[in-house]
């Protein structure tokens, strides 16, 4: 874990961030725009997580002789509460990423950001 995290934070992330955010970066030159920096962070996190999951494999005890083993459930109320907290936190975070709402048109940007967040969550469900 320490080596994987060090490689990602020391080498991979700076290169990808430069591609997207630096003047003359590979993605920036192609017209890529990353509002509040979330695209680079989340796309890289998803790819790194996928690589780690493929490398590590399934959980210990998940399969027995190639047959899936039923995993015991977790607390449904706590799962629901966590989901609600996550949704409300993301709406506040994404809506506040603009940093201000003082100029004409700012409200539309914030509304679009919150609407996209809700639609993305609905589509992922």
From TrEMBL:
Localization of this protein: Membrane
GO molecular function: ammonium channel activity
Keyword Membrane: yes
GO CC list: plasma membrane
Membrane protein topology class: Multi-pass membrane protein
Signal peptide: none
GO annotation, biological process: ammonium homeostasis
InterPro entries tied to this protein: Ammonium/urea_transptr, Ammonium_transpt_CS, NH4_transpt_AmtB-like_dom
Keyword Thylakoid: no
Domain Ammonium transporter AmtB-like span(s) in chain numbering: 1-124
Residues passing through the membrane, by range: 35-56, 76-93
Assigned keywords, A-Z: Ammonia transport, Membrane, Transmembrane, Transmembrane helix, Transport
Principal location listed in the UniProt entry: membrane
Family to which this protein belongs: Belongs to the ammonia transporter channel (TC 1.A.11.2) family.
Annotated protein name in UniProt: Ammonium transporter AmtB-like domain-containing protein
Organism: Cuerna arida
């Amino acid at each position: 874990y320490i080596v994987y995290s060090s490689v990602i934070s020391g080498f991979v992330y700076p290169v990808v961030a430069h591609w997207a955010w630096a003047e003359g970066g590979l993605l920036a030159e192609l017209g890529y725009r990353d509002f509040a920096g979330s695209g680079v962070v989340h796309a890289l996190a998803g790819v790194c997580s996928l690589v780690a999951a493929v490398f590590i494999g399934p959980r210990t005890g998940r399969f027995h002789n190639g047959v899936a083993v039923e995993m015991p459930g977790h607390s449904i109320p706590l799962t629901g509460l966590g989901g609600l907290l996550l949704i409300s936190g993301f709406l506040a975070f994404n809506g506040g990423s603009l940093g201000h709402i003082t100029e004409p048109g700012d409200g539309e940007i914030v509304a679009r950001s919150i609407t996209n967040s809700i639609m993305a969550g609905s589509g992922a469900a």
